Amino acid sequence: MTGTNLPATIGPASVSEMLRHGRNLLIANPAFQKWAASFPLTRLIAERQSNALFDICSGFVYSQILLACVRLDLFSKLAGGPRPCAAVAEDLDLPFDATQRLLRAATALKLVDALEGERYGLGELGAALLANPSISSFVEHHALLYADLADPVALLRGETATKLSGFWPYANRKAGDPAPAGGEAYETYSDLMAQSQADIAEDILDAFPPTGRRRWVDIGGGEGVFASALAIVAPEVEAQLFDLPPVAARARSALQRRGMLSRVTVHEGDFVSGSLPKGADVMSLIRVLHDHDDETVRGLLARIHEALDPGGTLLIAEPMGGGAGSDRVSDAYFNFYLLAMGRGRTRSVAELTALLEAGGFSDVRVVPSRRPMLANVLVAQRV
Ligand SMILES: CC(C)=CCC/C(C)=C/CC/C(C)=C/C=C/C(C)=C/C=C/C=C(C)/C=C/C=C(C)/C=C/C=C(C)/C=C/CC(C)(C)O
Ligand SMILES: C[S@@+](CC[C@H](N)C(=O)[O-])C[C@H]1O[C@@H](n2cnc3c(N)ncnc32)[C@H](O)[C@@H]1O
How far is the CA of 272 from the centre of ligand 1 (A)? Predict the structure, then answer.
């Protein structure tokens, strides 16, 4: 919502708002806090609130402990079974005390399990991370975001020359800029996205089975991980993708390596200024719309409307906020990530629905999916 269309109401607008405001005023009172922390019926709530606030205060320390574990490849080193601290210290090439400090911190974060006799094994979160190697790539990648967030107020004021804007070259392109020639930047982001695509692709194809469809074009399809998964799950559907020329070139090589080049058609172009391939009955935008401002999104939806068969389906998958069940991830993490990237914002289901309806789509609905935190799935019909 922009400053121009903010509602004019000042102060609580309903009874429930008034009650919430009253409760918050009470919580802001130090004497009430002291009482609530010792009164048996409110003590647990007070404790939960202090822990929640402490976690927000200290989240950056937890993240850096995780970064140390990832950089030292600690979880792989514990994957074979519990080991004494001294053996881990030797393996990590760290002093014993530092290793013990790290292992105890990681234990507190459930990344590691502390066992009898100063031995340590994989914790439940460390085990989950080991099964999802793309998480480690994001943890490493966060070094850029971490630097960009050092002065969050300067970032909000647009005063920071951010590292993330260099990582995502398309975030700095203006409409009408010549087609990008490629280069290292397209390689690094495409690789990061491809690593994290496989699980999301599975979630989407399970939530919205492609059977019975004819031709599916994945717009902004990166290196074709989704299109390959589609071609495997539903060989009868023509799988296609569309992306910027340097990314499309990478997609062709990646598909060739996976033996999928004959099963996926790769189109190259620019969805901001060019036209899209025609004749599809499904098009998808996976982790694409939130990278762009409303004007670009309106233009892209208009191009999709023009290219998609009448009655065809548009599927959008990305983190969505505003009560969609992924608000922390969407409205806090991704919205600040996109701020540092220099373009785009996360949108709620309601905001996306309004944009879709204004673009000539109808029957917008959320499709329940396995991990809405990383990708809520929304589908709409082209009228
Ligand atoms: C066996 C017994 C007795 C009990 C078991 C109990 C039980 C059921 C435990 C559950 C264990 C389990 C299966 C855990 C699974 C955990 C999983 C799957 C965790 C997954 C976590 C995923 C994470 C943390 C993902 C992080 C993703 C990030 C940070 C993504 C960043 C993406 C970016 C920056 C994308 C940028 C693109 C742009 C620019 C925004 O467009
Ligand atoms: C965040 S990535 C998502 C990639 C993939 N869909 C996924 O989920 O892994 C956004 C994709 O949109 C592509 N893209 C950005 N601007 C574009 C444009 N103007 N025309 C075509 N593709 C574009 C990028 O190259 C990139 O592959």
Answer: 32
Q: Residue 212's domain spans which residues?
A: 135-382
User: Is residue 234 included in any domain, yes or no?
Assistant: yes
Separation of CA 220 and ligand 2 centre (Å)? 4
Residue 278, CA distances (Å) to 4, 18, 251, 253 in order: 38, 53, 20, 24
What phi and psi values does residue 314 have, to the nearest 5 degrees? -110, 130
Is residue 250 situated within a structural domain?
yes
Query: What ipTM was estimated for this complex?
Result: 0.95
> Whose alpha carbon is nearest atom 35 of ligand 1?
193
Quote the crossing angle between the two packed helices 85-92 and 96-108, to the nearest 10°: 110
| pLDDT, one tens digit for every residue, the chain (383 residues) | 444 566 666 777 888 888 888 888 888 888 888 888 888 888 898 899 999 999 999 999 999 999 999 999 999 999 999 999 999 999 999 999 999 999 999 999 999 999 999 999 999 999 999 999 999 999 999 999 999 999 999 999 999 999 999 999 998 877 667 777 777 889 999 999 999 998 899 999 999 999 999 999 999 999 999 999 999 999 999 999 999 999 999 999 999 999 999 999 999 999 998 999 999 999 999 999 999 999 999 999 999 999 999 999 999 999 998 776 678 999 999 999 999 999 999 999 999 999 999 999 999 999 999 988 888 999 999 98
Question: Pocket residues for ligand 1 (CB within 6 Å)?
Answer: 128, 132, 135, 138, 168, 287, 290-291, 334, 337-338, 341
Q: Classify the phi-psi angles of 143: left when phi > 0, otherwise alpha if psi is within -120 to 50, otherwise beta.
A: alpha
Residues 82 and 195 placed together within one structural domain of the fold: no
Ligand 2 residue neighbourhood (C-beta within 6 Å):
170, 193, 197, 220-222, 243-244, 247, 270-272, 286-288, 291
115: CATH: 1.10.10.10
Pocket test for ligand 2, best of 202, 287, 346 (most atoms within 8 A of CB): 287
For the chain, what is the domain count?
A: 2
Asked whether the beta carbons of 270 and 296 are under 8 A apart, the reply is no
Residues 326 and 251 in one domain: yes
Host H or E run for residue 179: none
Q: Whose alpha carbon is nearest atom 31 of ligand 1? A: 138
